[in-house]
Structures are given as C-alpha cells and as structure tokens.
Amino acid sequence: MLEERPTSMTLTALGWPILLLPRSLSWPQLPHPLCPPGKEDGRSCKKVTIRMTIRKNECRSNTPVNLVSCDGRCPSASIYNYNINTYARFCKCCREVGLQRRAVQLFCATNASWVPYTVQEPTDCACQWS
To answer: For 31-52, what is each residue's pLDDT tens digit?
Structure first.
C-alpha cells in the first residue's frame, strides 16, 4: 500500500501554506507561495523620509534635503524541498512601486554657481518579488 503524501502543509512559524510539488517542477519555476499580510508591527514596508545632503562632483545641496525612500520588512523564507533536494527561496524586498522626478538646486563652491539636479523618489513602496 502506497503512503499518501500530503499536498500541502503549514509552516507554523510564518503561517504560509507550502506546496509539495511533483519532481518535474523545479526551481525557479516554482509558483510563489501565498503570502498573507502579516500583523502590523510598525515595521512593514512603507515610505520614509530621510534627510541627506546631495553631492554631485564639486556641488552639493546647501542644506539637507528631505528625500523619500522605502524601508521595512517583507516576507522571506528558505524551505527545504525534498523533490528538488535543495532549498527553495522565497524572498520579497521593500521596493519602490513608482518613481517621480524631483528637482534640487546644488551649489558649486568652485565657481559660486547653482546647478539644477534631478533625483527620483518613490511614489509608493511595497513588498515585491526580487
């Protein structure tokens, strides 16, 4: 009598369903696991503002500039899959969803002039497959 293999199991630490796949399906063709949003702990992927001085060659912003960046936690796991005899890696990164251009004036001390400089800022941030 053949032993029945489960079609899925739950990785309790993360609460993700893990699918057991046929041998013919191997990484990187594995489907992405279902990643339900985690409990809000204040560290999820979101837009944050960072103050920094922008420098380009001999020029720099006169004062620190508030720039939008992305920061936070996203789901990831490395789970052993005996069908492919290795670990399957599921990783998402906190990344920009869209970008917008923003003009910043930089002061060049060598010739006492101002030059325009363009930076790109995220319009939004989200966990995305890397």
So the answer is: 444 444 444 456 899 999 999 9
Q: Is residue 92 part of a domain?
A: yes
- DSSP sequence for 29-90: SPPPPP-------S-BSEEEEEEE--EETTEE-SS-EEEEEEE-B--EEEEEETTTTEEEEE
User: What is the Cα–Cα distance from 127 to 71, expressed in whole angstroms?
Assistant: 10
Predicted confidence at residue 8, as pLDDT, reads 39
Examine residue 31 and state whether it is found in any structural domain, yes or no.
Answer: no
Burial degree of 58 (CB within 10 A; 0-12, 13-18, 19+): exposed
Token pair in block for residue 130 = 């890397």
What backbone torsions phi and psi does residue 111 show, to the nearest 5 degrees? Answer: -125, 15
Give the tokens for residue 124.
């939004």
State the pTM of this model.
0.61
Number of domains within the chain: 1
Cα angle: 68, vertex 109, 104; to 5 degrees: 25
